[in-house]
Amino acid sequence: MQCHRQIDDLFSHFSLDDRASYVAFLKAHARALAPLEDVTRPDAPRLPMLAQDLAALGETLPSPLDAPASGGEAFRWGARYTLEGSRLGGAVLARQVGSGLPRAYLSAVHGKGGWVAFQQSLDAAAHEGGDRWIGEAIRGAEAAFALFARAARCETVAAHG
After folding, report:
1. Rounded-to-integer distance, Cα 90 and Cα 109, Å
2. Counting beta carbons within 10 angstroms of the beta carbon of residue 150, is it exposed (0 to 12), middle (13 to 18) or buried (19 or more)?
3. Domain count, the chain
4. Most buried residue among 36, 41, 109, 134 by CB atoms closer than 10 A?
5. Residue ranges making up the domain that contains 95
6. Burial class (CB in 10 A: 0-12, 13-18, 19+), 78
7. pLDDT by residue (tens digit) across 51-71?
8. CATH value at residue 38
C-alpha cells in the first residue's frame, strides 16, 4: 500500500536513539493517535503509554490534529486496521530506541493471537458488509495513514524549522 510506504519514509527521518528526535517522533504519533483512538475506540488504547513515555522525558502530550471525518462503522474498522497494524511496526522500532529512553508505547504489542483475532473480525465484518463496506474501510485506513503523515510533517517542521 502506497500510504504505508509514505509513512515509513516520513518516520524514518526520526532517530529513535537521539532524545530530541525521539521526543519529536512520540509527539508526532500523539498528534495522530489521540484523534484516531477517539474515532476507533480500540480495545487497548496506547495513548496513555505514549503520554507516560513523554512524561518520563519531561514532555507533555501535544495538541492533537483534527480527527478525520468518520464515514461510519466500516470507516472506523479501516482506521483501526492502521492503528492495530502499527503495533507490529512498534515492536520492531522499540529495539531501536536509545538506551535509557522509555519505550512503553512502542512495546505495546498485541497479546498472543491478538493480531490474528483482529484480522478475523475485520474479515468477517467485510464479508458481511460487501464491496461498499470494504471501500469505506479502505477510506478509513487511508485517512488514518494521512493523519500520521500530517503529524510527522508537523513535528519535522517544528524540530527543524
Report:
1. 7
2. middle
3. 1
4. 36
5. 2-160
6. buried
7. 999 999 999 999 999 988 877
8. 1.20.910.10
